[in-house]
């Protein structure tokens, strides 16, 4: 599957005239507009408070943990999730792709942790190809985050979409490359996986 996805496929959309501001520490962000109560509450929800310990600034700023395909039509107890940090599990998904039921509503769900500092404009990019032909590209904004006050992971549910249906859609394997990147072009995760469409979840 490697080499089937071009870097051009992962160029995020940009807004003309938008400039990325200089990076600031958690404490610097906490002190900005300190008199604005609603802004202060929003910053506190992200763990941005004066004197907050944001952890040592070592290692990746963002750790992507899991990606899951969720659907109200999934049988009870069935879960389609991948551990991004387990190479053996990802290799298994490439050998034995997820099977998504055709014509149903589902959504992508991602979990990640912010280890230190403030990450700005984090987004998820996904390119789907079949037999080397690009079938779909998804770009979803995760947002801007600081470390969670309790050190917990964040979960982001993307908007629901409907899986394709029909005999043509069910033929072949869909190869996916996923990437999590921020406004500065910092890549936090980049991995490949596969899925097929079927008449039922399996």
TrEMBL record:
Q: Where in the cell is it found?
A: Cytoplasm
Indicate yes or no for the key word Cytoplasm: yes
* Xref: InterPro entries: Ig_E-set, Rho_GDI, RhoGDI_dom_sf
Instruction: Write down the SUPFAM superfamilies for this protein, in alphabetical order.
Output: E set domains (SSF81296)
Entry annotated with the keyword Disulfide bond: no
Main location (coarse class): cytoplasm
Superkingdom: Eukaryota
Q: What are the record keywords, sorted? A: Cytoplasm
Q: What family does the entry list?
A: Belongs to the Rho GDI family.
Recorded protein name is Rho GDP dissociation inhibitor
Query: Which organism is the protein's source?
Result: Somion occarium
